[in-house]
From TrEMBL:
GO cellular component term of the entry, any: plasma membrane
Protein name: Membrane protein
Ribosomal protein listed as a keyword: no
Cited InterPro entries: MMPL_dom, Mycobact_MmpL, SSD
Sorted UniProt keywords: Cell membrane, Membrane, Transmembrane, Transmembrane helix
Subcellular location: Cell membrane
Length: 912
């Protein structure tokens, strides 16, 4: 009815919105207010007592909502939001410059992320006893442009160019002499770079000086240092291009969703400030040595904060708009919206944080770092949505929604009909028909889904199972480092030249740490493998720095056979062998060779190097994936049970979200293998996809089911599902599109891992938004009925006759579905209601003077008739049979019946 207000609102907000004394008569749904400012029932039993309120039937409410705040109250309404905004502005101003300083606390070197227990980590630590410093090899590769043999002049020019470029660079060790290939068409020069120095700068200097220096020769810089430089270049767009694209995409979506000018800017401002603070906090934590950042973690942080903060902002502003329709005062409306939004925002954000923190159990440092880094980001997004954005909304008021400013429905909503005939009455206070008509497609979807639940959820489930069937075809065993970069790569081109003219592992050998006494045996074992081209022993006394292993012996590089052979370098009783592999060091074949070496040696011999690092990284990633996924699943399930206080509902949400994840991974496998023809995926891709899809997918289900539970407590489960889908459909769909778009923005960073993660999360979020949350979950929930909330029992689902049977499904063309209302755990249908064991039969049930006519949807309470368009009203409460009932038709009876109807449910009838 026009002018009604929600029964579940707090006394304060109800009083604020009540009509002014002398104005329109308050409806039965207005909560009674007692005290000096409101009308109510006095001690004498007569209504209308109170200092400022009068009236025999309680028709005059408080004028608190209509009076403007004065004095200190008015100042506080401006001052508090302004102070909060200034605090956020100051924090964002401090954090902004740290975007450019993230490189100080980050590294893209995979060796820095291995656990200390990894075999390659132990070998790397032991190498300090054999070399003066830790070095990253850069390999300069020169190839004849026309396929001819290189001339002596060309070889000398390349050597001179390398020497002149590195001579004054303290971070560069002595370059090796040019090493020609057997066919004479190429050469390679090894340039050792200090691992603690900026290898990227040295590599770029080499590339610049060598480009077009020698006529007829193509020169490349490859090797680990070359790939590191290319990766750094690929990640360089994170704090520039990625942010611009992400914010631009979100702005366009918000403009379409809100059809307003100011509000999208306010939401984006809160997202940007949250990101600035998250960057600041994470930089401080990384600088303290708690974790180490890398490019992919940094990119995920940016996208996650922007997407999450925007989603939470959408939820708050949607609820705020509802409240503006039922309150004259925008601050009062904002308070109600904040109270209604805080639970789902904190619950969803807390679920994401809990899932992310499970990554702390990872072996791989890059996985472990993502947990706290992203959790800090989500926490900042929550704080911004619950403090900064409300402050901005309080300062701007209704004008934030301009030009579509929501109007207060007020005492009389006449003349406020929209195109669908729905009045300006606050959305949550409307009848079911009004809710369905007023929320367009989602109202109709909710109504149809509840009317045909089985065909809906079974159909969606079969579709998801079809997609999930391709999940096992996803190739996630790791990829070569040369395949990580999707754009042009000088290092990759150089690696291809090396593989064509030299043994693939040239310049990046596998290091074998063996006891001194077993050096020859260990060398022979390696030399016998097909994947090993040659073996040498580290000897710093030799001019070449190593002794070649030939015919079972170590041979020095000194040509004089009478000269003594240099002694091998020994550190703590160990020697260091170098095995040059036949395949490129970052290839799957090279990794297989390393595994064969490890299998051939005992525990006393360790194998390390770049290839071994890749092996250990993949193994650690697979270990993390197998460990973290079930832990995240258990943690999120327990959190959902605690939040929903319903085991069945929680399990239903987890199972549907898991199926959505599997379907997304299956479709991703099809796209990666057959459309994009990608070489494979990192083992961490399924792990990251799971964490984000499950946590974020649960997010939207929490948004939905929180509202469904709220509506079900007043209207019953089936009608609550329709209302929940209708009322949250628009905002959740908008949030899903925003999150999918922000993750899709990761494709601007030309890294294979981020491309795959962007597709999986974006596609999975859209599947969850449009299929799972909109159709599958409501369909299954309808089938479960009151059992959905087990072990809880919702009052409106019929405990003690406290709620009416809601006729939630009207005719769908020629079909009409009859829905049974459950009362006190028993089924009420066709005029039979069971209340605490007492069965009342008949088409009409009369309780305390209140008559409920189901067939006509008319509720009569002591002569007061409330008609709602083709929907059932909740029955009046059963009065306490142990108390003396007021005379039928007396003012006391009228007031009592009106009060009970206004609450939307009656009180439980006591046994006589």
């Amino acid at each position: 009815m026009p002018g009604t207000h929600r029964a579940d609102r707090s006394p304060e907000s109800s009083a604020n919105d009540a009509p002014v004394a002398g104005g329109s008569t308050a409806t039965a749904t207005d909560a009674p207010v007692t005290g000096k400012n409101g009308s109510g029932k006095g001690d004498s039993g007569k209504s209308g007592s109170g200092k400022n309120g009068s009236g025999g039937n309680g028709s005059q409410g408080s004028d608190k909502g209509s009076s403007k705040p004065r004095g200190k109250a008015r100042l506080a309404r401006i001052l508090i939001p302004a102070i909060l905004t200034l605090v956020w502005l100051a924090l964002a101003g401090i954090g902004g410059p740290f975007f450019g300083r993230i490189g100080e606390v980050s590294s893209n070197d995979p060796t820095t992320y291995l656990p200390s227990s990894a075999e390659s980590t132990a070998v790397q630590e032991a190498q300090s006893g054999f070399f003066e410093s830790d070095e990253i090899p850069a390999i300069v590769v020169a190839e004849s442009s026309g396929g001819e043999k290189l001339t002596e002049e060309q070889i000398a020019e390349v050597a001179d160019a390398v020497e002149s470029t590195t001579a004054d660079d303290a971070a560069v060790g002595e370059a090796s002499p040019p090493i020609p290939s057997e066919d004479g068409q190429a050469l390679q020069v090894f340039v050792p770079i200090d691992a603690d120095a900026d290898a990227v700068e040295t590599v770029e200097a080499l590339r610049t000086s060598l480009k077009d220096t020698v006529d007829g020769v193509d020169v490349y810089v490859t090797g680990p240092a070359g790939f590191s430089a290319d990766l750094t270049e690929a990640f360089s767009g994170i704090d520039g291009l990625l942010l611009v694209v992400a914010f631009a995409v979100v702005l366009v979506i918000l403009l379409i969703v809100y059809r307003a000018v100011i509000l999208p800017l306010l939401v984006l401002t809160s997202s940007l400030f949250a990101l600035c603070v998250a960057v600041l906090v994470n930089w401080l934590l990384a600088d303290a040595g708690l974790f180490l950042l890398n490019g992919q973690v940094q990119g995920i942080l940016f996208i996650l904060v922007i997407g999450a903060a925007t989603d939470y902002g959408l939820l708050l502003t949607a609820r705020y708009r509802e409240e503006l329709e039922r309150s004259r005062d925008h601050v009062t409306a904002l308070k109600s919206a904040w109270k209604g939004s805080i639970e789902p925002i904190i619950a969803s954000g807390g679920t994401v944080i809990a899932g992310l923190l499970c990554l702390l159990l990872s072996d791989l440092e890059s996985n472990r770092a993502l947990g706290p880094v992203a959790s800090v980001g989500i926490l900042c997004a929550i704080l911004a949505a619950l403090t900064l954005l409300p402050s901005l909304l309080a300062l701007f008021g209704r004008v934030a929604y301009w030009p579509r400013v929501p109007r207060y429905a007020g005492e009389d909503a006449e003349g406020t009909e929209d195109a669908e005939g729905v009045t300006g009455v606050a959305r949550a206070d409307q009848t079911l028909d009004q809710v369905v008509k007023g929320h367009g497609v989602y109202g109709r979807i909710g109504k149809y889904t509840v009317g045909h639940p089985r065909r809906i959820w079974v159909g969606v489930t079969l579709l998801l199972i079809l997609g999930a069937a391709f999940f096992p075809t996803l190739k996630a065993e790791g990829v070569a480092q040369s395949d990580l970069i999707l754009t042009a790569s000088d290092a990759r081109d150089g690696q291809n030249v090396l593989a064509e003219h030299f043994p693939g592992g040239s310049g990046t050998p596998a290091y074998i740490l063996a006891p001194e006494a077993d050096a020859a045996e260990a060398a022979q074992t390696a030399a016998d493998l097909d994947g090993v081209e040659s073996v040498s022993l580290t000897a710093n006394d030799d001019p070449a720095g190593q002794l070649a292993f030939q015919d079972g012996e170590f041979v020095g590089s000194i040509p004089d056979p009478n000269a003594p052979v240099a002694e091998p370098t020994v550190s703590e009783g160990k020697v260091l062998l170098q095995a040059t592999l036949t395949d490129p060091y970052d290839s799957a074949a090279a990794q297989d060779t390393v595994r064969e070496l490890r299998a051939a040696y005992g525990d006393d011999v360790l194998v390390g190097g770049n290839t071994a690092t890749d092996v250990d990284t993949n193994d650690a990633s697979i270990h993390d994936r197998n460990l973290i996924i079930p832990i995240v699943l258990i943690v999120i399930t327990l959190i959902l049970i605690a939040l929903m206080r319903a085991i069945v509902a929680a399990l239903m949400l987890v199972v549907t979200t898991m199926l959505s994840f599997a379907a997304a991974m299956g479709v991703a496998a099809l796209v990666f293998n057959h459309v994009l023809d990608l070489p494979g995926a990192d083992p961490a891709v399924p792990l990251y996809g799971f964490v984000f899809l499950v946590a974020l997918g649960i997010d939207y289900n929490i948004f939905l089911m929180t509202r469904v539970r709220e509506e079900s407590e007043r209207h019953g489960t089936r009608e609550g599902i329709i209302r929940g889908v209708a009322l949250t459909g628009g905002v959740i769909t908008s949030a899903g599109i925003v999150l999918a778009a922000t993750f899709a923005a990761l494709v601007v960073i030309p890294i294979l891992f981020l491309l795959q993660l962007a597709f999986i999360v974006a596609f999975g979020v859209l599947v969850d938004t449009f299929l799972v949350r909109t159709l599958q979950v409501p369909g299954i929930a309808t089938e479960l009925g009151r059992h959905l909330w087990w072990p809880r029992k919702l009052a409106a689902d019929g405990h003690g006759g406290t709620a009416a049977a809601s006729k939630v499904v009207e005719s769908h063309g020629p079909e009409t579905d009859e829905i049974e209302a459950e009362t006190g755990g028993a089924v009420e249908g066709r005029g039979e209601a069971e209340t605490d064991g007492a069965v009342e039969r008949g088409a009409e049930t009369e309780t305390g003077g209140a008559v409920e006519r189901r067939d006509e949807g008319v509720a009569e309470a002591a002569g007061a008739v409330e008609r709602r368009d083709e929907t059932d009203a909740a029955p009046a409460a059963a009065s306490d049979q142990t108390e003396e009932e007021p005379p039928h038709g007396s003012p006391e009876a009228i007031e009592k019946a009106a009060e009970e109807l206004g609450t939307g449910h009656g009180r439980r009838r006591k046994d006589v």
